Amino acid sequence: MKIPVTGFVLESGDEDGHHSHQLFITSWNGKPVHVHAFSGVTSVNDGHSHDYSSWTAPAPTGVPHVHGYRAVTSMDQGHTHLIQGTTGPVIALPGGGHYHMFEGYTTINGRNPHSHAYRGQTSNEVSQR
């Protein structure tokens, strides 16, 4: 099965000869895509918590879907953690739009290796940022 996807790629060149690419998807199977902001504070573990915020991966608008997400937490007590996963399904808002729930555990890190739980809900949908 082939699904038509449109978008564009931005190349970022660095002075040291390394570069990266970012893919921005603008439509999926003929439907425009959208993203959601998400943020929160992890649980307290090993005497501290971490803040996080980012944007979900894009997904098609107007169809059942989920979003991938990924963020690096704030640095606290000399370390960060990675959070990543897949949101739950669409939860409709009464005035239109929708949001998603997400939850999980961070990667293990720190002087005393530990992880943190996190959970929350995304913002309402916004056009590709």
What would your notes on this structure say?
Helices cover 0% and strands 48% of the residues. It is mainly beta and 129 residues long. Strands 1, 2, 3, 6 and 13 form a 5-stranded antiparallel beta sheet that branches. It is flat. The protein has one domain. The two termini are 28 Å apart. It has no helices and 13 strands.
Topology of this protein?
Layout: E1 5-13, E2 19-28, E3 31-35, E4 37-41, E5 51-55, E6 59-60, E7 68-72, E8 82-86, E9 91-92, E10 98-99, E11 101-105, E12 117-121, E13 126-127
Antiparallel strand pairs: 1-2, 2-3, 3-6, 3-13, 4-5, 7-8, 9-10, 11-12
Protein name: YmaF family protein
Biased composition (Polar residues): 120-129
Pfam family, one: YmaF
Features:
single chain, 129 residues, mainly beta, 5-stranded antiparallel sheet, two-stranded antiparallel ribbon, 13 strands, flat, YmaF, YmaF family protein
Give a short summary of the structure.
The chain is mainly β. It has strands at 5-13, 19-28, 31-35, 37-41, 51-55, 59-60, 68-72, 82-86, 91-92, 98-99, 101-105, 117-121, 126-127.
Supply the helix-strand structural class: mainly beta
| Structural domain tally | 1
The number of helical segments is 0
| Main sheet summary | 5 strands, antiparallel
Q: Please state roughly what percent of the residues sit in beta strands, choosing from under 5%, 5-15%, 15-25%, 25-35%, 35-45% or over 45%.
A: over 45%
Radius of gyration: 17 Å
Mean pLDDT rating? 86
Order of helices and strands: EEEEEEEEEEEEE
> What percent of residues adopt helix (DSSP H or I)?
under 10%
Q: Quote the distance from N terminus to C terminus.
A: 28 Å
